[in-house]
Amino acid sequence: MVENPNAIFNRVGPGTPMGNLFRRFWLPAVLTKQLPDPDGPPVRLRILCEDLLAFRDTNGEVGIIGAFCRHRLAPLFFGRNEECGLRCVYHGWKWNIKGECVDIPNVQPPQNYAELKDKARIKSYPCIEKNGLVWVYMGPQDLQPPLPSFEWMQVPEENVSVSSWLHRSNFHLGMEGELDTSHISFLHSSKPDPDALGPASALQYAVDGAPEITLHETDYGYIYGSRRTFEDQYYWRVTQWMLPMWSAIPGGLEEFVGNGRGWVPIDDHTTMAFGYMYRPDRPLAAPERAFIESGAGFPPRTEYRPVELPDGYVIDAYDTVANKDNDYLIDREMQRNKNFTGIWGINEQDRGLIESMPWADPDRLGIVDTSQEMLVRSDYPILIARRRLVAMALDLEKGVEPIAATKGDTYGVRAVSILSEYSDFDELMAEHGETALAADFAEPPIR
Fold this sequence. Notes:
Rieske Iron-sulfur Protein; 11 helices; Naphthalene 1,2-dioxygenase Alpha Subunit, Chain A, domain 1; single chain; alpha+beta; 2 domains; 4-stranded antiparallel sheet; 5-stranded antiparallel sheet; 447 residues
């Protein structure tokens, strides 16, 4: 195996520096709609290299526990979800959402039955369900922070749409696609579409493919402005990066429609992407929901099904229709006459390039040898994100806890898309900085 020189950045399992860092934050684990009913089928997960199972019990509460029976390591996915617990169908042992063993029916209860059940406990993690997502915290319980106060987490549930899909690369490659503003002038360019919604509606202004970038680091991550020349003005795209792997991406110029992604490592090689789109002022309208469900943007076109990972473990995921096996459904006629790539959807265009990069280990997908890259000025946000995450992971190894994990109230920020005569980012934000804040936040995000 050819090891990536930045092993800290790519390894997220238990005990690794980056894995420890991610475990200090609440992470999205599963969509609420994947667990629609009490006592319904469980959902197989892998998060940060840990094999887990999510299920909704008889009382409607969600638990995330270890995926295998403590007795003979049988998969609990096949278990009976009944009477506030998941019962293994191999020998009948049963666990509740807290990971507590509540029944061992294949032995006569010995004198130490309570001790035996306590010893049979399996891992479980705290969960919070809100606005279509089940969140999980996998870190030290005495350091459990509050949920981050994203604006889309504060609006009524009918105002927001959340989604997930399988991304076949390490988390940072997907995340960095969000932070790279120059690629939209090429990869996502196409003939103007007057009916475009969301992020696609602003791409017509991104004809200048060499934006000037100004970046300010913040407690929650950073904010940066990319300035493009458009006719006699400047087209500004103000992007937010929230630790450890969230984005808020600029949309159209007319009405604010918030959107972005979070990139949760399944393991070192694979990622579960979570997307959100929301309106702070009203419920999402039928055309907006139709656009989301079409797969033209985020999420891509997907099929919900069991997916076997390279090591044989199976997860339940929204797997992508356009993928490496079918060349992302590239259409050369479309490439000649309609768009730059010949690939239909925005995320499908992203994945077509990212998932087809050369892997550092030819036998395992997902990790790129970044020492072979030739980064340029427009890649500055990517470079800063890498440095920030590695520095925080190494600081945590020295006992310095990540400030961002405890400052979820600073996550109420928006991305901005604006035409302006201002050529200086700080002057732009002095005039329009309030547009980068959620409705109930008063202080600008720049320190």
